[in-house]
Design a protein that fits this description.
alpha/beta, about 30% helix, globular
Length: about 550
């Protein structure tokens, strides 16, 4: 066999050579649409590579982006790693002190920033120790007011250079291509480095598992700063898919529905928060043609079963659950029923579709109990999920001490607790830190949340453990009620009575709040809920 490195350049060159007429589309506010082809995309990416060299970027250097999902950001996705540097996609929703930390920790040399986000970098520019150049990605073509120096407009900068570039083929497949930092709940964010090899293999596995091919049109709702936008942009360029990049419109449900119908989107992915927003928008009367949709992936946290069923049955949204982490690039499992399940009743199929899924090809997994023993494949025994494979991280960037417990024994210790059934499907019980231990028995906050959110008056629900003098901990249900609806604690307890695994799972108390706080990537922030309880913003009844 040839000693041929797995490099992202092969994806870029394939798209340019074999799919030059396929479109890449950016969606801007006020229904403004920008379109160009992979032929145009390749030329601009070549110009970008020259521009990076002109700014002194060399092999192994780190280049940061602070950007929305746009065609310019997609150019960075390939232009930076294919010329030999590594792209650090920064999460602009992080607190400013975390942004300062990750940019300095990554030692980013050049920072590309969307014109709408320049104010963030202006606020921290004096604390950035390694950034030598700033490049503003502007759709308006105008330089915004800024104190950044030296600063360039993206399109002006790349326009100076040739439309061809000799992307090196002598890079190592183990070279860093991307860096992404986790959104830390405690301490500083942790850096995960993705190699060319890992991203190429991840793309192959994702395409095979999710059945993505050249005839698909992919809508990238997942932020491109978060775990490679779940790998979508890499695979889609490699496969030659049409791509839609919605920019600021990712949470504008009218714009999302319109683009799905108008552009005949077949594939998209997002966190449950997005799908809940979409469901509520459609329930309000939105009507669109979604017949083109083939696959919708929900990940990041458990998708409530009622939501999956309602979107699928009422609106033709074929949602499937997937599981992964920043540390797994992120795909680890997908809940696709096996062919042998074709004649299963609908209820049983939804049991499969609402699970975390079955392991992706190429990875290894074991689920171990507190003694380190693998649990039985009976769907009952709980344990922590451990993973390893060619696109799973083996350490955190420049952080050996914090790496040790997470990567002990050559396995990624995910911190997620789950079961595995005889068919190989994993069901998440909870994060180890979010399980509620009441009277010596474990309660799954995830299961409780899904049951509570099935109540017709409930918009969102999150469950946390709170101290109890007798039972040590009890679950507290934090509930957001739908506008115009009403529900009482008694009604929720009655609703749960015949649905929970045991009556003692039912929360003694519910807190009705205006909104559930979210993390920077759209998950429920239970850390903030616990803080709200601790400082009295969510009062607890006297026992």
């Amino acid at each position: 066999m040839m000693d041929y490195p797995l490099l992202l350049r092969t994806f870029l060159l394939r798209a340019a050579k074999y799919f030059p007429k396929k479109e890449v589309v950016s969606v801007y506010p006020n229904h403004e649409i920008f379109r160009y082809t992979y032929a145009d995309y390749f030329k601009r990416t070549c110009r970008l590579a020259h521009a990076l060299e002109s700014l002194g970027v060399k092999r192994g250097d780190h280049v940061a982006s602070m950007a929305l999902n746009t065609h310019r950001h997609l150019e960075l996705y390939f232009g930076v790693p294919c010329m030999g540097a590594a792209l650090h996609t920064t999460n602009f929703r992080l607190p400013l002190h975390h942004l300062v930390y990750i940019i300095n920790h990554a030692e980013d040399k050049v920072l590309f920033v969307d014109e709408d986000l320049v104010f963030i970098i202006d606020a921290i520019k004096d604390q950035l120790k390694t950034v030598e150049h700033y490049v503003i990605m502007s759709q308006s073509g105008k330089m915004p007011q800024t104190g950044l120096k030296p600063v360039y407009l993206y399109d002006d900068l790349i326009s100076r250079f040739p439309e061809s570039y000799d992307f090196p083929d002598d890079l190592s497949e183990w070279d860093p291509a991307m860096i992404c930092y986790t959104s830390a709940t405690t301490g500083d964010p942790k850096g995960v480095v993705y190699s060319h090899r890992g991203l190429v293999l991840h793309s192959y596995a994702a395409g095979c598992t999710l059945r993505v091919s050249e005839n698909d049109c992919a809508l990238h709702i997942v932020p491109m700063f978060h775990a490679n936008a779940w790998g979508g942009p890499f695979g889609c360029v490699g496969f030659g898919c049409k791509q839609i990049l919605p920019g600021r419109e990712t949470i504008n449900m009218e714009a999302i529905c319109k683009v799905i119908a108008d552009e005949q989107v077949t594939f998209t992915a997002g966190v449950p928060t997005i799908w809940l927003m979409l469901y509520n928008y459609l329930e309000g009367g939105g009507k669109y043609d979604f017949s083109s949709l083939k696959t919708i992936v929900s990940g990041g946290s458990a998708c409530p079963r009622f939501l999956m069923e309602a979107l699928n049955e009422k609106y033709g949204f074929p949602i499937m659950q997937a599981y992964g982490m920043t540390e797994t690039s992120p795909l680890a499992m997908v809940a696709i029923p096996k062919s042998s399940m074709a004649d299963w009743p609908k209820e049983k199929l939804y049991d499969v579709k609402s699970s975390a899924g079955i392991l992706a090809p190429g990875l290894e997994m074991k689920i171990v109990n507190e003694k380190g023993q693998e649990v039985k494949a009976d769907g009952q025994e709980w344990g922590e999920i451990l993973l390893r494979g060619p696109w799973v991280a083996n350490e955190y960037y420049k952080d050996p001490e914090r790496s040790k417990p997470y990567f002990e024994g050559g396995w990624l210790h995910t911190g997620d607790v789950g079961t595995i059934d005889e068919e190989g499907y994993v069901r998440l019980i909870d994060r180890t830190k979010d399980l509620v231990k009441s009277g010596g028995e474990w309660i799954s906050s995830v299961d409780l949340e899904n049951l509570i959110m099935a109540h017709p008056a409930v918009l969102e629900a999150a469950v946390i453990g709170v101290p109890h003098s007798k039972w040590v901990e009890r679950p507290l249900g934090c509930v957001v009620v739908k506008p115009g609806q009403a529900v009482t604690e008694e009604a929720l307890r009655e609703f749960l009575k015949d649905k929970v695994k045991a009556v003692w799972w039912i929360p003694d108390h519910f807190a009705f709040i205006d909104q559930i706080p979210k993390t920077s990537v759209g998950k429920f922030s239970k850390k903030e809920l616990r803080e709200m309880v601790a400082n009295g913003k969510i009062p607890l009844p006297v026992e």
